[in-house]
From TrEMBL:
Domain Carbohydrate kinase PfkB, chain residue ranges per copy: 19-323
Taxon lineage: Bacteria, Bacillati, Bacillota, Bacilli, Bacillales
Domain of life: Bacteria
Protein's name according to its UniProt entry: 5-dehydro-2-deoxygluconokinase
InterPro entries found in the cross-reference section: Carboh/pur_kinase_PfkB_CS, DKG_kinase_firmi, Myo_inos_IolC, Myo_inos_IolC-like_sf, PfkB_Carbo_kinase, PfkB_dom, Ribokinase-like
GO BP: any one term: inositol catabolic process
Pfam families to which the protein is assigned, alphabetical: PfkB (PF00294)
CDD domains xref list: KdgK (cd01166)
Record family assignment: Belongs to the carbohydrate kinase PfkB family.
EC number: 2.7.1.92
Amino acid sequence: MNGGGDVNGLRFDPTKPLDVIALGRLCIDLNANETGRPLEDVVTFTRYLGGSPANIAVGAARLGLKTGFIGKVADDPFGRFIVRYLREAGIDTSGVVTDAPGSVTGLTFTEMKSPEEGRIYMYRENVADLNLAPNEVSEEYLGSTKALLISGTALARSPSREAVFVALDYARRHGAVVVFDLDYRPYTWSSPEETAVYYKLAAEKSDVVIGTREEFDRLERFDPPSRGDDETTARRLFAHRARLVIVKHGKAGSVAYTRNGQRVVGPVFPARVVKPFGAGDAYAAALLYDLLRGWALERCLTYGSAAAAIVISRHSCSDAMPTAEEIEAYIRQVQSGQGAGA
Ligand SMILES: Nc1ncnc2c1ncn2[C@@H]1O[C@H](COP(=O)(O)OP(=O)(O)O)[C@@H](O)[C@H]1O
Ligand SMILES: O=C(O)C[C@@H](O)[C@H](O)C(=O)COP(=O)(O)O
């Protein structure tokens, strides 16, 4: 584990008992069992834990990180399943609260028409996760972690929005590294203007900002046009608190910039794609694992990319999160020329 040294411009406090606390939505994924057809023709689904920050937390725990969570579940069977699943995955749930009766658990139906063609349909009216209130965020809990991971969708509505900013301030007060995964989901936001304003406010308070090019374009809505130039995007965030900015480009890979001038291009691993979803969550979990261990950026992006290729080759996201051994084995398999087959 990073001994608190300043690696990649990040300093993780080794005295903190938790490695990462994730904050945001805890939902259910219902992934189509019948593939190759539109959702209207799908009869059965498999239920998994879902929600980008939840998936990342599961990925982090599966890699061996001491992981906690701050979130809110509905007082319904899915909420009880979620808390049980987190505990069984070894994730600390002391920061997870149950909402008053009446709200529901967010549902995401995943269509798998083809490896490249699939959509997700999110049902997020009156969801419990956006009812997380600022007074339900514990400063003491945030004082116990090396890193805080926040997910952009938690900024989509109050009081969750305010809870995120309180968590951000607590994390910074106690020296935690703040990782902001933009995680844009159109289904929850009222307007693109709102997304831009709150993404920018949170990104300017974060040490690490991860997003796709499209997500950064949304953040930059009111900035002078960067014309999709990743380096311009990174430089703008370095004018604030950021030390590391990572732009993801799907199967074209990823690129990372550090405040001290590094630019590292992430590799892309071959994948027998089952669904195009889950890549970013796996990428974030494995990247964070390696950042916490103080590895060089090249290796961090390699680990993230390999984990992503593994997860998109499997039916689920959360359940599919790989162990470190699986990632290492896949990297060796590909580097020895044995091709895909995660
Ligand atoms: N089809 C693919 N084949 C191999 N790797 C992929 C593929 N799609 C994504 N990845 C890897 O996963 C990373 C994140 O995927 P991306 O789609 O950019 O993010 P998100 O899932 O958050 O939208 C990419 O940078 C790349 O390394
Ligand atoms: O984030 C959600 O609410 C849905 C996820 O649980 C789902 O697995 C998914 O779409 C992952 O998307 P991605 O990792 O951003 O591709």
